[in-house]
Design brief:
A hairpin with a 4-residue loop joins strand 10 and strand 11 (267-271). It contains 10 helices and 13 strands. The chain folds into 2 domains: 1-111, Transcription Regulator spoIIAA (2-Layer Sandwich); 112-304, Heat Shock Protein 90, CATH 3.30.565. It has 304 residues and is α/β, with parallel strands linked by helices. It has helices at 14-21, 47-62, 78-85, 87-90, 106-110, 132-143, 150-171, 202-213, 222-232, 245-254; strands at 3-6, 11-12, 34-39, 44-45, 66-71, 96-98, 117-123, 178-185, 190-196, 258-262, 267-271, 281-285, 295-301. Helix 1 (14-21) packs across helix 2, helix 6 (132-143) runs antiparallel to helix 7 and helix 7 (150-171) packs antiparallel against helix 10.
């Protein structure tokens, strides 16, 4: 019997995807070799969920699972949207798509023609795209042009995106690609930037250095350590070295953006305080279904 994951008939963001995965065993952990994801009519996948799901599917394929995506509404709606985002350009070739993979990539056909969209881009050290941080920050600047702080926001965003992309190259230690994408949601007056990789994850690289660099934290749980990453800037190289998450979180708070950080089995959602410059509120989740790597999403308001 295949392990079936059925997405809900509504907008699916990263939080909805996480709740859906938690309804049963995680697909990495089930004994079944077949894993099926069903996209019913009415299901709409947002960019943070799409990029995270893409990484998960390619991980399952690398783990010798037989993976099948079933789109009950055919080639319209969610399949068409994913094609426009470039999802299938990066999906492992062994993953079966029903009714079929799009014969033409809409991302390649129309790429760059939508000012509110940066199609899914692979982050691969063998063919590094140094223009990616600029493309993301430029799109953010165009979308947030009504904000009074748009120039400062655009400059800070470039720094954050460059750090996050560089972290994929420097610390993920995997042959699987990472991914980044941006989408403007005009009706929701928001913009999402998602960055995902399938590497070791922050805790796997940080834990070995804790005893030597931060002995007082040796007994902390992964969730507690992750909070300290944001508070103190912990890294395997010492405080404030080699880990851009503290700086990224500080900029997210300053510019009133939510920051979602998903590790292999833990997640932290940082929500800025009412004043924008106050310490953020952190919502922590542990014991989540396994997804290799580090997955981040910034959500900016278009008109704050």
């Amino acid at each position: 019997m295949p392990h079936v994951i059925r997405l809900p008939t509504k907008w699916v963001n990263a939080s909805t995807l996480e709740r859906t995965l938690q309804l049963g065993q995680g697909p990495h952990e089930v004994p079944d070799s077949d894993v099926r994801f069903i996209f019913p009519a009415g299901c709409k996948v947002m960019i943070d969920a799409a990029v995270r799901l893409l990484s998960l599917l390619n991980q399952l394929d690398r783990s010798s699972r037989r993976v099948r995506l079933e789109f009950e509404d055919g080639a319209s709606d969610v399949l068409g949207y994913l094609n426009r985002m470039g999802f299938f350009d990066h999906l492992a070739r062994n993953v079966e798509v029903v009714p079929e993979r799009p014969p033409v990539s809409a991302a390649k056909q129309y790429g760059g023609q939508n000012a509110g969209l940066v199609e899914i881009a692979a982050i691969n050290p063998s063919c590094r795209d140094d223009s990616l941080p600029s493309r993301l920050s430029d799109a953010l600047g165009r979308a947030c042009c009504q904000r009074s702080d748009v120039k400062e926001l655009e400059g800070a965003a470039w720094t954050v995106f460059a750090e996050l992309v560089d972290n994929v190259f420097s610390h993920s230690a995997t042959s699987l690609d990472g991914y980044a994408a941006l989408q403007v949601y005009s009706r929701g007056k928001s913009l999402m930037v998602a960055v995902s990789d399938s590497g070791l994850g922050i805790m796997e690289t940080l834990r070995p250095a804790i005893s030597a660099e931060f002995p007082t934290l040796a007994g902390h749980s992964d969730i507690e350590l992750l909070v300290e990453v944001f508070r103190q800037g912990l890294s395997r190289h010492g405080s404030d070295r080699g880990c851009g998450l503290k700086g990224s979180a500080a900029k997210a708070i300053k510019y009133k953006a939510d920051l979602d950080v998903r590790l292999p089995t833990n997640r932290v959602l940082l929500v800025p305080g009412a004043g924008g410059y106050r310490p953020s509120t952190a919502y922590c989740s542990g014991h989540l279904p396994l997804i290799w790597g580090t997955h981040l999403c910034f959500t900016f308001s278009l008109d704050t």
